[in-house]
Amino acid sequence: MKRFFVFISAGAVALSLSSCSSRVPERIQYSGTAMGTVIQQTVYTSARDKTVLEDIQKRLQVLEENRLSWRLETSEIYEINSLAGEEEGVLLSEETAEMLERCLEMNERSEGAFDVTMGPVVRLWNLDSWAAGKESGDFIPPDTTALAEALAHTGSSRLYLSGQDGRLYLPEGMALDLGAVGKGIALDEILNYLRENNEITGATISVGGSILTYGEKPDGTSWRVGIINPFDNSGFIGVLSLKGQWCVSTSGDYERYVEAEGIRYHHIIEPSTGYPADSGLSGVTILSRDGFLSDALSTACFILGREKGMRLAEQYGAEALFVEKDGTVTMTEGMKPFYTESQ
Ligand code: AMP
Ligand code: MG
Q1: Each residue's pLDDT tens digit, 260-318
Q2: Dist. CA 254–CA 5, nearest whole Å
Q3: Closest CA to ligand 1's atom 8
Q4: Counting atoms of ligand 1 from 1, which one is nearest the CA of 128?
Q5: Which one, of 160, 188, 214, 173, lies nearest residue 68 by Cα?
Q6: Is 257 touching ligand 1 by the criterion CB < 6 Å?
Q7: pLDDT (tens digit, 9 = 90+) per residue, 96-109?
Protein backbone atom coordinates (compact mmCIF):
# COMPACT_ATOMS: atom_id res chain seq x y z
CA MET A 1 0.00 0.00 0.00
CA LYS A 2 1.33 3.42 -0.89
CA ARG A 3 1.61 6.05 1.77
CA PHE A 4 1.65 9.60 0.62
CA PHE A 5 2.16 12.65 2.73
CA VAL A 6 3.33 16.21 2.21
CA PHE A 7 4.53 18.75 4.67
CA ILE A 8 6.11 22.18 4.64
CA SER A 9 7.30 24.32 7.52
CA ALA A 10 9.96 26.80 8.61
CA GLY A 11 12.84 25.78 10.84
CA ALA A 12 12.66 28.44 13.50
CA VAL A 13 10.26 31.05 14.69
CA ALA A 14 10.80 34.47 16.20
CA LEU A 15 8.75 34.56 19.38
CA SER A 16 7.24 37.91 20.26
CA LEU A 17 5.34 39.18 23.26
CA SER A 18 1.61 39.29 22.77
CA SER A 19 0.99 42.62 24.48
CA CYS A 20 0.99 45.73 22.32
CA SER A 21 3.06 48.61 23.57
CA SER A 22 1.73 52.15 23.24
CA ARG A 23 5.14 53.64 24.08
CA VAL A 24 7.40 55.27 21.56
CA PRO A 25 8.96 53.60 19.59
CA GLU A 26 5.91 51.87 18.34
CA ARG A 27 5.76 48.22 17.40
CA ILE A 28 4.42 47.40 13.96
CA GLN A 29 3.91 43.93 12.52
CA TYR A 30 3.30 42.21 9.25
CA SER A 31 3.06 38.67 7.97
CA GLY A 32 2.72 37.62 4.38
CA THR A 33 4.68 35.88 1.68
CA ALA A 34 7.69 36.83 -0.42
CA MET A 35 10.39 34.86 -2.23
CA GLY A 36 8.12 31.83 -2.22
CA THR A 37 8.05 31.65 1.56
CA VAL A 38 6.43 33.07 4.68
CA ILE A 39 7.65 36.46 5.89
CA GLN A 40 7.04 37.79 9.39
CA GLN A 41 8.15 41.22 10.46
CA THR A 42 8.09 42.93 13.84
CA VAL A 43 9.66 46.38 13.77
CA TYR A 44 10.02 49.01 16.51
CA THR A 45 10.14 52.46 14.98
CA SER A 46 9.71 56.03 16.10
CA ALA A 47 8.98 57.22 12.55
CA ARG A 48 5.62 58.87 11.92
CA ASP A 49 5.45 57.43 8.48
CA LYS A 50 5.04 53.65 8.92
CA THR A 51 6.10 52.50 5.47
CA VAL A 52 8.92 50.30 6.85
CA LEU A 53 7.07 47.03 6.45
CA GLU A 54 6.07 47.77 2.88
CA ASP A 55 9.58 48.98 2.04
CA ILE A 56 11.10 45.72 3.29
CA GLN A 57 8.53 43.67 1.44
CA LYS A 58 9.29 45.62 -1.73
CA ARG A 59 13.05 45.08 -1.33
CA LEU A 60 12.55 41.34 -1.07
CA GLN A 61 10.39 41.35 -4.15
CA VAL A 62 13.05 43.25 -6.10
CA LEU A 63 15.77 40.90 -4.84
CA GLU A 64 13.77 37.93 -6.08
CA GLU A 65 12.74 39.48 -9.40
CA ASN A 66 16.06 41.07 -10.32
CA ARG A 67 18.62 38.71 -8.90
CA LEU A 68 17.80 35.38 -7.31
CA SER A 69 14.84 33.65 -8.94
CA TRP A 70 15.50 30.73 -11.29
CA ARG A 71 11.87 30.94 -12.44
CA LEU A 72 11.43 34.62 -13.33
CA GLU A 73 12.81 35.74 -16.67
CA THR A 74 13.68 39.14 -15.21
CA SER A 75 16.34 37.81 -12.82
CA GLU A 76 20.10 37.61 -13.19
CA ILE A 77 20.16 33.93 -12.21
CA TYR A 78 17.59 33.21 -14.92
CA GLU A 79 19.78 35.01 -17.46
CA ILE A 80 22.89 33.13 -16.31
CA ASN A 81 21.10 29.79 -16.62
CA SER A 82 19.65 30.58 -20.02
CA LEU A 83 23.11 31.53 -21.31
CA ALA A 84 24.76 28.30 -20.10
CA GLY A 85 27.12 27.05 -22.80
CA GLU A 86 27.56 30.50 -24.45
CA GLU A 87 31.23 31.05 -25.23
CA GLU A 88 31.28 34.66 -24.16
CA GLY A 89 29.70 33.84 -20.78
CA VAL A 90 27.58 36.39 -18.96
CA LEU A 91 28.50 39.69 -17.36
CA LEU A 92 27.63 39.68 -13.67
CA SER A 93 26.53 42.48 -11.39
CA GLU A 94 28.99 43.20 -8.60
CA GLU A 95 26.63 41.73 -5.98
CA THR A 96 26.11 38.50 -7.89
CA ALA A 97 29.84 38.10 -8.60
CA GLU A 98 30.60 38.53 -4.90
CA MET A 99 27.82 36.16 -3.88
CA LEU A 100 29.02 33.46 -6.30
CA GLU A 101 32.57 33.82 -5.04
CA ARG A 102 31.32 33.16 -1.53
CA CYS A 103 29.35 30.16 -2.81
CA LEU A 104 32.44 28.73 -4.49
CA GLU A 105 34.46 29.18 -1.31
CA MET A 106 31.75 27.38 0.66
CA ASN A 107 31.81 24.59 -1.92
CA GLU A 108 35.54 24.11 -1.41
CA ARG A 109 35.49 24.35 2.35
CA SER A 110 32.54 21.93 2.60
CA GLU A 111 34.34 19.44 0.33
CA GLY A 112 31.62 19.80 -2.30
CA ALA A 113 28.62 19.32 0.03
CA PHE A 114 27.36 22.82 -0.63
CA ASP A 115 26.97 23.26 -4.37
CA VAL A 116 24.99 26.01 -6.12
CA THR A 117 25.15 24.08 -9.39
CA MET A 118 22.68 21.47 -8.11
CA GLY A 119 19.99 23.12 -10.29
CA PRO A 120 19.42 20.21 -12.72
CA VAL A 121 19.15 17.68 -9.87
CA VAL A 122 16.91 19.91 -7.73
CA ARG A 123 14.58 20.47 -10.73
CA LEU A 124 14.43 16.74 -11.42
CA TRP A 125 13.33 15.91 -7.88
CA ASN A 126 10.92 18.87 -7.93
CA LEU A 127 10.52 18.46 -4.17
CA ASP A 128 9.55 22.08 -3.44
CA SER A 129 6.52 21.65 -5.62
CA TRP A 130 5.57 18.26 -4.13
CA ALA A 131 6.07 19.54 -0.59
CA ALA A 132 3.85 22.52 -1.32
CA GLY A 133 1.09 20.16 -2.49
CA LYS A 134 1.22 21.53 -6.04
CA GLU A 135 1.60 18.12 -7.67
CA SER A 136 -1.05 15.43 -7.97
CA GLY A 137 -0.86 11.64 -8.02
CA ASP A 138 1.80 9.53 -6.32
CA PHE A 139 5.33 10.77 -5.93
CA ILE A 140 7.84 8.61 -7.80
CA PRO A 141 11.57 9.26 -7.24
CA PRO A 142 13.54 9.99 -10.43
CA ASP A 143 14.93 6.95 -12.20
CA THR A 144 18.66 6.34 -11.94
CA THR A 145 19.41 7.16 -15.59
CA ALA A 146 17.71 10.54 -15.38
CA LEU A 147 19.47 11.24 -12.09
CA ALA A 148 22.88 10.30 -13.51
CA GLU A 149 22.24 12.57 -16.50
CA ALA A 150 21.29 15.50 -14.23
CA LEU A 151 24.29 14.86 -11.95
CA ALA A 152 26.59 14.92 -14.97
CA HIS A 153 25.58 18.57 -15.34
CA THR A 154 26.59 19.68 -11.85
CA GLY A 155 29.83 20.62 -10.10
CA SER A 156 30.99 24.02 -8.87
CA SER A 157 34.54 23.26 -9.99
CA ARG A 158 33.26 23.47 -13.56
CA LEU A 159 32.16 27.09 -13.18
CA TYR A 160 34.57 29.72 -14.31
CA LEU A 161 34.23 33.10 -12.65
CA SER A 162 36.59 35.65 -14.13
CA GLY A 163 37.63 38.17 -11.52
CA GLN A 164 39.11 40.38 -14.22
CA ASP A 165 36.17 41.03 -16.49
CA GLY A 166 33.36 40.02 -14.09
CA ARG A 167 32.03 37.29 -16.37
CA LEU A 168 30.74 33.86 -15.49
CA TYR A 169 31.15 30.88 -17.79
CA LEU A 170 28.65 28.14 -17.11
CA PRO A 171 28.93 24.94 -19.16
CA GLU A 172 25.97 23.86 -21.27
CA GLY A 173 23.21 22.00 -19.43
CA MET A 174 24.26 23.38 -16.05
CA ALA A 175 22.02 25.63 -13.92
CA LEU A 176 22.47 27.58 -10.70
CA ASP A 177 20.06 27.19 -7.78
CA LEU A 178 20.32 29.74 -4.98
CA GLY A 179 17.69 28.06 -2.79
CA ALA A 180 20.25 27.34 -0.06
CA VAL A 181 21.30 30.98 0.39
CA GLY A 182 18.41 33.12 -0.89
CA LYS A 183 16.82 33.64 2.51
CA GLY A 184 20.10 34.52 4.13
CA ILE A 185 20.85 37.01 1.37
CA ALA A 186 17.38 38.46 2.01
CA LEU A 187 18.33 38.98 5.67
CA ASP A 188 21.52 40.82 4.64
CA GLU A 189 19.45 43.00 2.31
CA ILE A 190 16.98 43.80 5.09
CA LEU A 191 19.84 44.57 7.46
CA ASN A 192 21.21 47.15 5.03
CA TYR A 193 17.79 48.77 4.90
CA LEU A 194 17.39 48.82 8.71
CA ARG A 195 20.81 50.38 9.16
CA GLU A 196 19.88 53.24 6.81
CA ASN A 197 16.87 54.08 8.99
CA ASN A 198 17.81 55.75 12.27
CA GLU A 199 14.22 55.71 13.47
CA ILE A 200 14.17 51.91 13.59
CA THR A 201 15.35 50.88 17.03
CA GLY A 202 14.74 47.14 16.84
CA ALA A 203 13.31 44.40 14.64
CA THR A 204 12.93 40.67 14.18
CA ILE A 205 12.23 39.50 10.68
CA SER A 206 11.85 35.93 9.52
CA VAL A 207 12.10 34.84 5.92
CA GLY A 208 11.23 31.14 5.79
CA GLY A 209 13.68 29.26 8.01
CA SER A 210 15.98 32.27 8.48
CA ILE A 211 15.54 34.93 11.13
CA LEU A 212 17.16 38.30 11.69
CA THR A 213 17.25 40.08 15.03
CA TYR A 214 18.29 43.72 15.09
CA GLY A 215 18.70 46.47 17.68
CA GLU A 216 16.80 46.37 20.94
CA LYS A 217 13.33 45.91 22.32
CA PRO A 218 12.03 49.00 24.13
CA ASP A 219 11.88 47.03 27.40
CA GLY A 220 15.50 45.92 27.05
CA THR A 221 14.73 42.19 27.08
CA SER A 222 16.34 39.74 24.63
CA TRP A 223 14.94 38.62 21.32
CA ARG A 224 13.72 35.06 21.59
CA VAL A 225 14.08 32.74 18.63
CA GLY A 226 12.46 29.31 18.99
CA ILE A 227 14.10 26.34 17.29
CA ILE A 228 11.39 24.07 15.94
CA ASN A 229 11.32 20.48 17.17
CA PRO A 230 12.04 18.38 14.06
CA PHE A 231 9.88 15.55 15.47
CA ASP A 232 6.90 17.69 16.45
CA ASN A 233 6.80 20.87 14.42
CA SER A 234 4.18 22.46 16.66
CA GLY A 235 6.76 22.80 19.47
CA PHE A 236 10.31 23.97 20.09
CA ILE A 237 13.31 21.98 21.26
CA GLY A 238 14.72 25.15 22.70
CA VAL A 239 15.00 28.92 22.47
CA LEU A 240 17.90 31.24 21.61
CA SER A 241 17.99 34.50 23.61
CA LEU A 242 19.75 37.13 21.56
CA LYS A 243 20.61 40.80 21.92
CA GLY A 244 21.37 43.04 18.94
CA GLN A 245 22.04 41.86 15.45
CA TRP A 246 22.07 38.13 14.66
CA CYS A 247 21.03 35.81 11.87
CA VAL A 248 19.64 32.37 12.67
CA SER A 249 19.08 29.82 9.90
CA THR A 250 17.80 26.29 10.13
CA SER A 251 17.93 23.46 7.61
CA GLY A 252 16.03 20.26 8.29
CA ASP A 253 14.59 17.13 6.72
CA TYR A 254 11.15 18.14 8.02
CA GLU A 255 10.98 21.52 6.26
CA ARG A 256 10.08 20.46 2.74
CA TYR A 257 9.49 16.84 1.93
CA VAL A 258 7.28 14.24 0.40
CA GLU A 259 6.83 10.71 1.72
CA ALA A 260 6.25 7.71 -0.52
CA GLU A 261 6.29 4.03 0.38
CA GLY A 262 7.40 4.95 3.90
CA ILE A 263 10.49 6.84 2.70
CA ARG A 264 10.95 10.55 3.31
CA TYR A 265 12.41 12.47 0.38
CA HIS A 266 13.47 15.93 1.52
CA HIS A 267 14.85 18.93 -0.34
CA ILE A 268 18.55 18.97 0.67
CA ILE A 269 20.56 16.96 -1.83
CA GLU A 270 23.85 15.18 -1.26
CA PRO A 271 25.83 16.16 -4.39
CA SER A 272 27.88 12.96 -4.52
CA THR A 273 24.77 10.76 -4.90
CA GLY A 274 22.01 13.07 -6.12
CA TYR A 275 19.73 11.74 -3.33
CA PRO A 276 18.40 13.58 -0.26
CA ALA A 277 21.24 13.90 2.26
CA ASP A 278 21.32 11.29 5.01
CA SER A 279 24.04 12.24 7.46
CA GLY A 280 22.19 11.25 10.62
CA LEU A 281 20.73 14.71 11.27
CA SER A 282 17.15 15.95 11.40
CA GLY A 283 18.05 19.62 11.70
CA VAL A 284 20.89 22.12 11.97
CA THR A 285 20.62 25.68 13.27
CA ILE A 286 23.37 28.22 12.62
CA LEU A 287 23.90 31.49 14.46
CA SER A 288 26.00 34.13 12.71
CA ARG A 289 26.19 37.90 12.30
CA ASP A 290 25.91 37.35 8.56
CA GLY A 291 22.75 36.18 6.76
CA PHE A 292 24.47 34.57 3.78
CA LEU A 293 26.76 32.59 6.06
CA SER A 294 24.01 31.41 8.38
CA ASP A 295 21.93 30.11 5.47
CA ALA A 296 24.78 28.60 3.45
CA LEU A 297 26.22 26.92 6.55
CA SER A 298 22.92 25.45 7.71
CA THR A 299 22.55 23.65 4.37
CA ALA A 300 26.23 22.63 4.19
CA CYS A 301 26.32 21.37 7.80
CA PHE A 302 23.10 19.40 7.34
CA ILE A 303 24.72 17.52 4.45
CA LEU A 304 28.08 17.07 6.19
CA GLY A 305 26.66 15.74 9.46
CA ARG A 306 27.54 16.63 13.03
CA GLU A 307 31.31 16.23 13.20
CA LYS A 308 32.34 17.70 9.87
CA GLY A 309 29.57 20.30 10.13
CA MET A 310 30.83 21.41 13.54
CA ARG A 311 34.33 21.89 12.10
CA LEU A 312 33.03 23.84 9.10
CA ALA A 313 30.94 26.20 11.28
CA GLU A 314 33.96 26.79 13.52
CA GLN A 315 36.13 27.60 10.50
CA TYR A 316 33.70 30.37 9.64
CA GLY A 317 33.41 31.59 13.24
CA ALA A 318 29.70 30.67 13.35
CA GLU A 319 27.80 28.79 16.07
CA ALA A 320 25.91 25.60 15.27
CA LEU A 321 23.32 23.37 16.91
CA PHE A 322 22.67 19.85 15.62
CA VAL A 323 19.61 17.69 16.20
CA GLU A 324 20.31 14.07 15.36
CA LYS A 325 17.69 11.61 14.15
CA ASP A 326 17.59 9.99 17.59
CA GLY A 327 16.83 13.38 19.18
CA THR A 328 20.34 14.05 20.58
CA VAL A 329 21.13 17.77 20.61
CA THR A 330 24.77 18.94 20.37
CA MET A 331 26.16 22.41 19.83
CA THR A 332 29.33 24.47 19.58
CA GLU A 333 30.60 25.89 22.89
CA GLY A 334 29.77 29.41 21.68
CA MET A 335 26.11 28.50 21.13
CA LYS A 336 25.57 27.33 24.72
CA PRO A 337 25.20 30.76 26.41
CA PHE A 338 22.34 31.64 24.03
CA TYR A 339 20.42 28.37 24.28
CA THR A 340 17.76 27.27 26.73
CA GLU A 341 16.25 23.82 26.28
CA SER A 342 12.45 23.64 26.29
CA GLN A 343 10.95 21.85 29.30
P1 AMP B 1 18.02 25.24 2.85
O2 AMP B 1 16.56 25.07 3.14
O3 AMP B 1 18.56 26.60 3.13
O4 AMP B 1 18.87 24.17 3.49
O5 AMP B 1 18.21 25.08 1.29
C6 AMP B 1 17.72 23.98 0.58
C7 AMP B 1 17.59 24.36 -0.87
O8 AMP B 1 18.91 24.51 -1.44
C9 AMP B 1 16.90 23.31 -1.72
O10 AMP B 1 15.51 23.55 -1.79
C11 AMP B 1 17.58 23.49 -3.07
O12 AMP B 1 16.98 24.56 -3.78
C13 AMP B 1 18.98 23.88 -2.71
N14 AMP B 1 19.91 22.75 -2.52
C15 AMP B 1 19.64 21.44 -2.36
N16 AMP B 1 20.76 20.71 -2.19
C17 AMP B 1 21.78 21.60 -2.20
C18 AMP B 1 23.21 21.48 -2.08
N19 AMP B 1 23.82 20.31 -1.87
N20 AMP B 1 23.95 22.63 -2.14
C21 AMP B 1 23.37 23.83 -2.34
N22 AMP B 1 22.04 24.00 -2.50
C23 AMP B 1 21.26 22.91 -2.42
MG1 MG C 1 20.46 27.28 3.73
Answers
A1: 999 999 999 999 999 999 999 999 999 999 999 999 999 999 999 999 999 999 999 99
A2: 12
A3: 180
A4: 10
A5: 188
A6: no
A7: 999 999 999 999 99
pTM over 0.90: yes
| For the CA of 127, the nearest ligand | 1
**From the CA of 209, which ligand is nearest?**
1
- 283, 11 contact by CB (below 8 A): yes
- Looking at the CA of residue 113, tell me the nearest atom of ligand 1: 19
Find out whether the beta carbon of 116 lies less than 6 Å from any atom of ligand 1: yes
